[in-house]
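Hey all, sorry for the wall of text incoming. These are the three entities for the joint prediction.
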Amino acid sequence: MIPPETTSKETSEMSKAGGPSEETAEAAPDLSALGVREGAGHAVHVKDLHAYYGQHHSIKGITLDCPANEVTALIGPSGSGKSTVVRCINRMHEEIPGARAEGSVKLDELDVYAPGVDVTAVRRLIGMVFQKPNPFPTMSIFDNVAAGLRLTGTRSANLRERVHTALRAVGLWGEVKNRLSEPGIGLSGGQQQRLCIARTVAVEPEVILMDEPCSALDPVATLKVEELIDELKERYTIVIVTHNMQQAARVANTTAFLLEGELIEHASTNDIFTNPKDERTERYVTGKFG
Amino acid sequence: MDASATTVSGDRSGLERSPAARLPDRALKWGLTTLAALILVLIAYFFIRLIGQSKLAFSQNGLSFIFGNDWDVSRNIYHGFPLVFGTLVTSAIALIIGVPVAVATALFLTELCPRRFRGPLGMVVDLLAAVPSVVYGLWGVYVLIPKLLPAEKWFASTFSFIPFIGGGTVTGPNYFIGGLILAIMILPIVSAISREVIATVPSENKEAALALGATRWEMIRIAVLPYSRPGITGGAMLGLGRAIGETIAVLLVIGNAPTIGHHLFNQGYTLAAVIANEFGEAAATPIHSSALFAAGLVLFVLTLFVNIIARWYVARGERRQRGTAGTGATVAAEPASETA
Amino acid sequence: MSAVSGLPEISPRRRRTDKVMRASLLVATLIALIPLILIIYYVLKKGLSEWFKSGFFTTDPNGNFFGNPGGIRSAIVGTLEIVALATLISIPIGISVALYLVEYGKQSAFANVVRYFIDVMTGVPSIVFGLFIYIVLVLGHVGGGFTGWKGSVALSLLMLPIVARAAEVVLLLVPNSLREAALALGAPRWRVVSRVVLPTAAPGLLTGSLLAIARGMGETAPLLFTVSVATVLTGNLGAQMNTLPVQIFQDITSPRNEIVARAWGAALTLVALVLILNIVARLVSRRSRMA
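and here's what came out:
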């Protein structure tokens, strides 16, 4: 077992040296398995976004920049539209009957809402992890991670390698390497969520959206996922919705506060919590409402 | 109420109802229970009587009743494999044609159809179940058979190299028409069950597929269909049960020839059809009527069997819905690996 | 087609498959609708003119070899009476069984056995029910040979599981809080059932009953073995009666065109009755859901 003072970086260093803690090293997220990433990261620019559920005007003109290779947290009370914003980024919002969105969401220079854009291509680039872990119940652990890869016709030898590296990347490899053919839903909640993250990472997106990924998990599992998020931001741009302000404080570089479909304030996490500019932000982060 | 006047710790008689007042409740309970039990007893009784009436035919023909190929009323020989064969062939055709169409409509109505059309279209498909079987027969005889005959003849001659499906004499009434009408008749039940099952696919799995960049069809393929498979299979088997037992429509369009047709477009016979068809003339001949009862018994047991398996499948699909927990080993191992 | 550069290419094969499969599902659904449309079309086309022939509804089939073959009056009367009696038998019993399952038996072993049997009963071919009654009542000459009421008994065997299953679903939908509120007021269980549960479930029970009646009305095979064939008009359920399905069945194979035409007219009548019952049942169910 890893002594508490050791960070995950150190254990992977130890494993590279062929140390006896290979077991535990495999339990730590190892993004290097994914290979070298070319080019700079990609930022998300949300501009003047409006979202509707039928007649209900849910997001009222939000402009938000999520810097590349950083974690941007969205916080706010229930119903403030945090999940909706995130779902608009990968165009999942419009899958709801009667829902639509207007405005622009740019991945660097690419507007995913431009006419003629294929949503399935957008979702390859912008992955999503959901609140409740949702591995495909009829698929094995291996097949779950491979699901996205199979869609793009990845060949089987290449497929196996990429599934393994994805599992290594999220730190699940050690726990599941001997039972890849067992059902994905046989894992614990925390493992399932990391499995879903592996599934997302396997298709090599640029951005990972996370909609309250830890709210269904126990504290130990939550910590593991947060560790993973910290690693993931080296490679991906992450936007995370959370109702847990301590979590935002732990993982996010910048935090945006939303209220009733509007962006109230967006600043470095530190500033939002210790020195908010807007009175409403201040009241929320000090727990006066929400 | 008087209850408030009685102390809790004291005599409880004030709270009790008189035996007379409790009587209607007891009577209702036991009456209903007895009724339910009686129904079970009744069915069992019918079953036993049916077996009794079939004894003669089985003692005279033995297992050849089911497996022998010689149903000859004039010589009082009742080897009913042609009937079994016809039942199986027409049911198979019904499944091959009916189930894919039924599942396709279920998928369309649940996943692709705009909301406001879902109800009306679903109702139209369901109304197929309301059409009486004798009307299917009438329509089959005077519309379907004549209209399809030219196409069937063309098909049989063009594909005569394929065994069974091609070649042979094409008669008006035949296995294919029988199977086709059965396909139409089982469509509503398979579609309705499939629709129910498909609607229970958790939306989070569908979202997961879409979020991975799946097209709509791919989402159906990886998230909806695998999940629904047990339930749909169960629905298909219920359709099979219906097809096996259908009498009147088939009897009118299959030709009622007690032989094993070697081609799809030959005439045939089914277990259900023979009973209805020869019932009149069999009344005078005990061995003949016993043979028909025996056919009924085989039919009953067959449909019972198919239904029981079907329900097991549907139940299996429902069990999956409720989720499978991790195995004990997984749960036990988990804390050890989860702690840092 | 990806108008914006920088997005990964979605292979045209995937796009094509998506389009093709979605189109196929639509086409299959349309194909599924065709038989119903065709049947209604032909039944109307060939049967409607029969309705306007004089005597169609007011005379009985006369079995003559030449001349006017007669109408279907005795068939309609027979069907209405036999199905009415079957309804009187199967609906109360079916609802009672459902009441037992929901209010008393619940998940007990016995109740589960009953439930299972009822479910299995829905899969039994109707001809088998006909055989059952034939063996037990007709062969045994219980109260005569072929009679109308024996047909009713056979039909009620068929309708019972349909009513029971639909009723169970509906009774389960009655919120438990309603029952508990009534019980908490001190009402005995039988009163809760009769004053609270049944009235609340009434629309659903009605729907289930109507659907069962529509089903019973259309069955031929059970009647062949229990009521047999007749042409004479009689109101007497203790005698052989004519029924619509059997009348149609007999007429289909006639060499005479006028008789086949009569079959179409009778089929239209039967289909109209059955469709009306079905549509009313669905309307009742929809209105009660919206309320």
